[in-house]
Every structure is written in C-alpha cells, then in structure tokens.
Write a structure and sequence with these properties.
Elements: E1 3-6, H1 13-16, E2 31-32, E3 35-36, E4 40-45, H2 61-67, E5 72-74, E6 80-82, E7 85-91, E8 96-101, H3 115-126, H4 136-140, E9 141-148, E10 151-156, H5 163-167, E11 181-182, E12 185-190, E13 199-205, E14 209-214, E15 227-232, H6 236-244, E16 250-253, H7 261-270, E17 273-277, E18 282-288, H8 298-307, H9 310-317, E19 323-324, H10 347-356, E20 360-361, E21 367-369, E22 372-373, E23 375-381, H11 385-400, E24 404-410, H12 412-421, E25 426-430, H13 439-444, H14 451-456, H15 462-474, H16 478-495, E26 498-504, E27 507-511
Parallel strand pairs: 4-15, 4-16, 23-24, 23-25
Antiparallel strand pairs: 1-7, 2-3, 5-6, 7-8, 8-10, 9-10, 11-12, 13-14, 14-15, 16-27, 17-27, 18-25, 18-26, 19-26, 20-21, 21-22
Helix pairs in contact: 8-10, 15-16
Length: 538
Amino acid sequence: MGFSKLTFIAVSIGLLAVSGCSDKQSSDVQKTSGAAVKDSLNYASMKDIRNINPHLYLGEMAAQAMVFDPLILNTPDGKIVPALAESWDISKDGKTYTFHLRKDVKYTDGTPFTAQTVKQNFDAILANKQRHAWLDMINEIEDTEAKDDHTFVLQLKHPYFPTLIELGLARPFRFISPKCFKDGGTKDGVSCLSGTGPWIVEEHKNNQYAVFKPNPNCYGSKPKLKEVKWIVMPDPQTMLMALEKGEIDLVYGADGDQLTSDAVTKLQKEGKFVVSTSKPIASRAILLNSNAPITSDLKVREAIQRAVNKDNIVKGVLNNSEEIAETLFAKNVPGCNIDLTVRHYNPEEAKKILEEDGWKVGSKGIREKGGRPLELNFYLNSNNAQEKTIAESIQNDLRKVGIKVNVIGEEKQAFLDRQKTGKFDLQYSLSWGAPYDPQSYLSSWRIPAHGDYQAQIGLKDKALIDEEITKLMTEPDAAKRQELLTDILTRIHNSAVYLPVSYSKTKAIHSKALHDVEFASSQYEIPFEKMTFAAPQK
C-alpha cells in the first residue's frame, strides 16, 4: 500500500509543552530574586470533578484532560501537533492511519505506554460503542492493530476527514492504564486513575474539592505549579466573595456556569484582578422544539425569532461581553461562511405573522387559537444565574407580542435528562465550539441523546438532514463537503429551530500574581500546566 507521509515531530519545547511533563525539576522557576513564590493554585468551580474515567461522560472534561493524554492534540491556532504519538502516516486512500508512539513513556502506575495498551484502550471504547455513537468516528473504525511496541494502526471503513481532530478531543480517545480496567474494560468503571498526563489526582472529596499534583514521570515540560486545588463552589456569589478575599486564585469558564457577566464587569471596573476573554468559541442559542404541540408550527417559531431583542440581551444581560449571533454558527467557523437570510428584531412583524397564522389576542393579552392559549414552557439549569436572566428577558419580549412563557428552573442533571426526552418547548443550546464545530456537533444531531435531535425530529426533512450529515463525514472531496454543509445549515436555518442569541466566550478571572493564564483549543479544557505565580523574567 502506498503512503503519503505526514510527519509531525515535536522539535521544540514549545510543542512539547502543549501536553505532558518531564523529570526536569522546576522548583527554581518558583523563586524570584531568592524569595519564595506561591506554588499552589486554588481554582473555583461550580461543579465537582466527579468520575473522570476518560472513556465515560460522568466527569468534568477539564479534569479528564489534566490526567489523561491523547495521541495528538488540537491547538488554539487550529493545528494538530504530537502528543503520545510522535508522528503519523495516512494512506493515500485515507483509510489507514499509522501512529508512531513515543518511547519510554509510562502510566503513573509504572505500566509502559505501548501500542498494545493503545489497542486495549480502543477495544474498551469500542466495547461501549453505543454510548459513543454521537462521535461518528466510532462507527467508522474497522480494525485496530498493535504492529509492534511503538506502532499503532487504525483502519477505517471509509475516509473520514475529522479523524485527527476527533482523536485529539478531551474524550473518549484518551489513555488509561489497563491495570485500572474492570473486567477487561472501562464501560463499567475503573479501579484507578493512572494516566500519562501532566497531573495526577492526589485526593478527591465528593462535592468538596480535588487536589492535583504534577506527574513526575511524564514526557514534555513539567507543570510550573506544585498543586492545583479544585474547589467546588455551587453559588456564584460565594465564588465572587472568595475571589475578593483571596481564598481562590482563579475562576475560568464559559456560558455563565461560573461568574455572571455583572460580576465580571464589576471585577473589571475594580481593577484588582486580571480579566481576560477568549475569542468567540461557541454559539449560544435557544431550541424551539419542532416536535412540541405549539412550536411544531413553523409560523410560531418564525414569530419568536422576530420577537426577541438580542441587543438587549447582549448589552443588558451579557454587558457586551459577547457578540450578537444572527446565525447558528459564526462565519469564522470552518465551512460556515455562507449566505443566510437574517431574521432581524421586528416585534410588529412577529405580531403580523401570528395574526395571519390564526393566533388572536385574547382578553388577558395572550394569543389564542382554537381555544388554546399561546403558552410555552422554557426550561433551564437553575444553577446558572445568567441563563435565568436571559430567559426572563426573552419571556418579557415574547409577552409583548402575546406569547406567555413559563420560565422553569431545574437541577442540572434533570435539565440534561429533559434534553434527551424532548419534553420542552424552549430550552438552551450551546454548540460545542472549536475543535468540535461544526463536524462533531452536527454528527451528534443524529443521536437522540441531545436536545438538538429532539428539537429537530418534527422537521419534514429531518431524515434528509441526517442523511446529508452522514455523507458529509465520509466525503473525501472538500468541494462536495462544502455543498453538503451549506445545504444542511441552510435547511436548519430556514426551519427556525434554533434562535441564535450570541457567540459565547471563555472568561478567566484571576489574581494579578498568577501568570501565563491562557485559553485552550476547546472551552472544556484549562491549561493549568502553563500557569505560574513566578513573575516573568525580564
């Protein structure tokens, strides 16, 4: 078989520092002019790390990525660089990937990292194939082979263009020592958390905290910090007070799960902390369920699109920290720079659409049709204060055109479970951001495990959309892929199932003593290994 060799070798510390660590001691880095420098970081999160088995979806991705490495990594600038694989070859037909693995790498339990352990991990992932079906690559794997100790071969059924991207995601293609497997696999849990990543979990108390220490034996550059303490703070106000008191050093996250935009703006004005934001990383939208009794009506969905004042949300709720979204994906997302008709804010047009559709204003100002009030339920995560405020803004806008909206907060797991059932009229949706968008996010639309599938299922062309997504994933010709993507996104846009609100950003708020706080390739990962309290060398 002929091979077109694509060799990616890390030839600089810069690339090696993307992941992993080495034996080289870094205690000198934590000293400035002979004075001791703080080397323990207190990070606040609303969520516990939970179960960080890298092959399941029960824990926080940021914590999983700290402990477990992939074969390759996606970088913030869109490149793919070596991680556990030093280089790789891709066959001319695009179906065979041969990975040349690093030598002398060990899991934290002392087990050598080899092609055999890579295959064991792939076998464990494929044994739970149905759970991973949202990621189309799972369905494309034909065979795996440990050719020798340091050569792993992945055979696909068809050429699959996102292969390398998806191998670099936070899960599930990360590697854990086979000694941690239960009954030869990972789908029923693991007995330990032995990885090759920059960090190890030293201690974990459920819903209280987790302590991470540097892995002394992994490859690349060692973390500059000697400890990261992940502290659970479910209440944003408590988190804000702890930050102001110096009890925590860093708050980091997106989509309102951490601090509200009001709190971030307050901290910016005070000037006591460093506040930075990433470039737009994902799309914040509202799902309008095409399979629910009232929102199954396209005219109702179109009226809602016209009735919501996004400018008020971005300025009043988000304090201009995000950009208005008129389409589901921003034009800078690969393949998404296409012409779509923008539905501008126009409440009078919304009223006209509803009138023509037979929804007449009743005695209490709520529209009715056939004796049925135009009343919708908007479900949200009760722990997310920002989502609640956005929902209330939408509630107020829709009330002005005669639509009653009940805003209903639920505990996060109940909220996520509801997505899978489809029992909602309106619900939040957040695209997955780089490097998942658009291919992995679209791939998941075909699986009834997400709100996207449930909201789309009432569309007449749902089957066609799913068929085109399947073709998109395996089409080797770039021009044909663009044709398919354009048609998919045009159909979805015209269906008005998504009400785009804004393009979200990851935010980092930290003490001025903490340096080298950067944003990762994905909103779900945090590069703790780069952070330090040591002042930059002049």
